[in-house]
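Data card: per-record layout.
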Amino acid sequence: MLDIRLIREQPAFVKDGLRKVGADPTIIDEILRLDEQRRVLLGEVEALKAQRNAVSKEIPRLKDKDERDQKIAEMRAVGDRISELDRRVAQVEQELQARMLEVPNLPHPDVPVGADESENVVVREEGIKRSFDFQPRPHWELGEALGLIDFERGVKISGSRFYVLRGAGARLQRALIAWMLDLHTQKHGYTEIYPPFVVKEACLYGTGNLPKFGENLYRDYEDDLWLVPTAEVPVTNLYRDEILEPGTLPIYHVAYTPCWRREKMSAGKDVRGIKRGHQFDKVEMVKFVEPHTSDEELRKLIADAEDVCKGLGLPYRVVQMCTGDLSFVARIKFDIEIWAPGVGEWLEVSSCSNFGDFQARRANIRYRPAPGAKPEYVHTLNGSGLALPRVMIAILETYQQSDGSVVVPEVLRPYVGMDVIRQG
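The structure for this 424-residue chain is written out next.
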């Protein structure tokens, strides 16, 4: 959520930022209208309350009964007017809050201006793509031939875009999660969190998933709980409505969760294999930091995600999102994409974002810079470290051998319990 003071004081600046991210700037005019209406109503309420307080003190001193009764009647009318205005204020505040929640974050000055993903910028490419002396196979062929992935039974039990991992496939998935959590906690200084996999509606408003993306989320209507689209949601909301004491920041958390998304926006895309599914696993990094450090913290976050790619020996590239391809909540975002030779494409496995105070305002997460200081909003960041199953895709396709076997990356062998995955 943006600061209402910024909207009041620099509406042209805010509108320009919204245009850059492809949002309709006229919503700012509606917000300013509601904000002005709210302030006028509050001014009238305060004036009437001051009048009522003054007259209430005067009434006991009046000796004339008729005059006293008249004043009492007048104050009843004033009270009724105050009650009516309070209802109108509440209604206007509700409308104002709803409009504020619809406004996306503004882009960081360092974000390149562009209309859509075609204008994203490849910052750098790391590693060397493997050369094959045979035609590399896509992961869906490898997975089925090795008995790692069962597409047919996944669809049978849950429907389209679901699958079952079997044997070494399940172990490889579990190994990746365990190794990534160990890497981030033991080397990068994160504290592991094991959160609930369902959250209250307020948590999704806090991270910016609601109201805009509700149709892509899974929901239990009976208990009004939502399945998490990413660990970012429960982990960020750990500190919702809290004031963190001096010396608490920075906070680094990492968490594994399964993630659920309806994938409505990708209907008809990537229907083969496990690139897109309604359920997938992910290790997520979340940071809570002081505002003046957040740019540097983003650089460190990207490096932590890159470390996973390096450890697995997978070629990757870092891509900066232009203004037209930023997420609703990010002020600056970099994707990490790994090369999958079987499908011949770069696969996004991490989006590392700095949200500034956008989420913190929505979730009311503040900190005290010093003892007794006025609370300020924290800055939040998050990035996948990394997202499955696309890492699985890259491993299967990069480390495949001509006989159909797949070499297990060295860092994963203690977790998987084998060096090579073979048929049978």
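Known properties of this structure: The longest helix spans residues 65-101. The longest strand covers residues 279-289.

See the next section for split statistics.
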